[in-house]
Write a sequence for this structure.
């Protein structure tokens, strides 16, 4: 059984007829659904490039409508946080090839958190990991302060977005953004 890859979304299709065949410029292409085929027809030169060579598209056009994934009734112009639950809003017209600003925002925080949490874990677990020689290099008070210095930005800066969204969720009494399941 031959496997084909949709050039738009990258999804695998197979020979069982669960694909849409399209011939363009003498080459055969296979798509998982009609929307991917429409996107390909609109920009065939873009989708003929390998994914790593495609220039990222802007997140959304200026003035694009964004909505909450948990509550489609929430709509606003431009990205932001849901006023009900605090989740990041997503564009109403989703494009899998568009750059996701939320991803970049969270990736930066994740990298900082991991960078600070790894030495924090080594310091906190030094006795269990056989690193007791570190106690001869500095006093226990020094290691406690080092843990505080490393943990503070992880909790307060890297985790700030989660605290803000949780607070919004508590204020609106809608933890899952479904107004029907708001706390009584």
């Amino acid at each position: 059984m031959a496997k084909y890859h949709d050039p738009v979304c990258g999804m695998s299709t197979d020979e069982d007829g669960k694909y849409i065949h399209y011939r363009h410029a003498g080459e055969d292409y296979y798509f998982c659904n009609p929307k991917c085929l429409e996107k390909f027809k609109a920009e065939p030169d873009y989708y003929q490039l390998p994914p790593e060579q495609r220039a990222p598209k802007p997140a959304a056009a200026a003035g694009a409508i964004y909505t909450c994934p948990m509550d489609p009734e929430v709509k606003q112009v431009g990205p932001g946080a849901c006023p009900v639950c605090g989740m990041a809003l997503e564009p109403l017209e989703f494009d899998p090839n568009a750059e996701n600003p939320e991803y970049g925002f969270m990736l930066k925080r994740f990298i900082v958190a991991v960078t600070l949490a790894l030495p924090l874990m080594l310091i906190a677990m030094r006795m269990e990991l056989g690193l007791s020689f570190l106690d001869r290099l500095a006093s226990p008070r020094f290691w406690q302060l080092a843990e505080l210095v490393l943990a503070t930005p992880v909790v307060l800066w890297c985790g700030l977005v989660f605290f803000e969204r949780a607070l919004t969720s508590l204020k609106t009494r809608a933890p899952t953004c479904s107004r029907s399941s708001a706390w009584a």
The chain has six helices and seven strands. The longest strand covers residues 20-24. Residues 101-179 form one domain.
